[in-house]
Amino acid sequence: MTAIEQLSDIAVPPDVRDRMVAVRRDLHRHPELSRQEHRTAQLIADRLGEVGVDGVAHPVADTGVVGWVRGGEPGPTVLVRADIDALGITEADRGHDYVSTVEGVSHACGHDGHVAVALALAERLTAERDALAGNVVLLFQPAEERGGGARRMLDARAWPDDLTPSASLALHIATELPVGTVDIRPGTIAASAQSVAVKFGSPGGHAAYPHLTPDPVVCASAFVMAAQTIVSRTLAPRSAAVVSFGRIHGGEDRSAIPAEVELEGTIRTYDNDDLGIIQRRLRQIAEGTAATHGCTVEVDLRDDTYPACVNAPAITATVAAAARAVLGEGNVTAERVVAGADDMSEILMDLPGCYFWVGGANPARGLTFPHHSPEFDFDEDAMVVGLAVMEQAVRATLRSPPSGPNGTSEKL
After folding, report:
1. Binding site members for Mn(2+)
2. Mean pLDDT (whole number) for 5-13
3. For 21-166, where are the E strands, in sequence order?
4. Which of 73, 133, 271, 304 has the most CB atoms at less than 10 Å from its CB?
């Protein structure tokens, strides 16, 4: 018997699956970009009211929603996060009846599925709240893709004062993993990321007389090459990081040395301390290269940094044990670390927790395209797995809350 067949029998009734699919497909047809998730947020708030949670705050941080369930027995509070925004990507028409109806916007990262799972979790916990030893805060977060919604939601503190969470949980559907499996590992699971822009300037001049003006094209080229030494010569050999420039613009005429050249790129690393080192060295190299070539320079380390996602070992062990109890030993791995970034990291920095991956791939149905692809879609049985594992993870975490200096956060 497969993991999905087991779940259908013991954990997730067909009517619950049907409601998850209906919600997911509704959201998939009507995707909304970061900080524009008004319809999505209203759907979430309405559904939380329908299932009878103990409270709903809406809107939070403009387009977010927070709901909470009070258990019948005393205990700690666990926060469960679901991101809700879509991407500015035109969805390929794969012939199904839930393709995006919004031109240039689609749920190409699975956030529609995350919302559906969290709403089903609210339904399940509310129905059994009398036996729940503790409380659950459900945080539906806008602007994961653009805008840092997690920090704004945390700063809003939209839950009651007596329900301050001590732990956090979240899941992400992954089409790199087969449906029916999960990957749960302690430590770093996703990279930090920051955008950077560097502009080199000069008076500019005629291309025939390069000796009369500093050349920002040559300067920018030298800078890009020198920046690569940060990873190979500044960071320790054990460190993994990437400094990439994906856009360069300068000049309007082939016979003119331009007055400025601008580069844009990203910094990614799995270690938050390394991020600070890269930031400092990038600025030093930019200023040094500009001085060498006689150019001016402006360095913009943009305020969009996502720290690395780091799972707390004790809570992660609790979640992994809960997953094995649901899916069986062979369907739970601890291998996946991604170079992409996610602002669940902000929540994990304040609240020790676990962010885990839920397999959504089904090669037999052609459901293997990566996140952010126009072809992206996932096997909807992934939501069944996600719900079953998340529900057991919540219950297990409530029974074994974090302890010690990292158990609670002064920030909250």
Report:
1. 109, 111, 145, 172, 372
2. 65
3. 55-60, 64-70, 73-83, 133-141
4. 271
Distance (Å, rounded) from C-alpha 40 to C-alpha 190?
Answer: 26
Rounded (10°) CA dihedral 6, 11, 14, 19:
-130
Write out the binding residues. 109, 111, 145, 172, 372
Provide the mean pLDDT of the chain. 95
Whether the predicted pLDDT of 34 surpasses 50: yes
Same domain, yes or no: 226 and 350: no
70 and 152 co-located in one domain: yes
The sign of the dihedral angle between the CA atoms of 333, 334, 337, 342 is: positive
pLDDT recorded at residue 6: 58
**Of 264, 281, 306, which one is at a domain's C-terminal end?**
306
Residues 6+ apart with CB under 8 A from 236: none
pLDDT digits (tens, 9 = 90+) for 150-169: 999 999 999 999 999 999 99
User: In angstroms, what CA-CA distances link 386 with 117, 151, 170, 175, 244?
Assistant: 7, 24, 10, 13, 34
Catalytic residues: 306, 380
Say whether both 291 and 324 belong to one domain: no
Tell me the per-residue pLDDT of 273-294, one tens digit each, with 9 for 90 and over. 999 999 999 999 999 999 999 9
Greatest CA span in the chain, whole angstroms? 82
Q: Are residues 335 and 228 in the same domain?
A: no
- Domain range for 59 is 3-189+308-399
Question: CA-to-CA distance for 113 and 23, rounded, in angstroms?
Answer: 8
* Residue range 78-107, pLDDT digits in tens: 999 999 999 999 999 989 999 999 999 999
Give the pLDDT band of residue 132 (cuts 50, 70, 90).
Answer: very high
Place of tokens 């000069």: 202
| pLDDT per position as a tens digit, 199-242 | 999 999 999 999 999 999 999 999 999 999 999 999 999 999 99
| Per-residue pLDDT tens over the stretch 64-78 | 999 999 999 999 999
Backbone angles phi, psi at 283, to 5 degrees: -65, -45
Residues 6+ apart with CB under 8 A from 337: 185, 188, 189, 190, 270
One domain for residues 182 and 208: no
Q: Is the residue at 285 inside a domain? A: yes
In a domain, 404, yes or no: no
The CATH number of residue 79's host domain is 3.40.630.10
Burial class (CB in 10 A: 0-12, 13-18, 19+), 363: exposed
Residues 201 and 286 in one domain: yes
Are 28 and 126 members of one domain?
Answer: yes
User: What's the domain count of the chain?
Assistant: 2
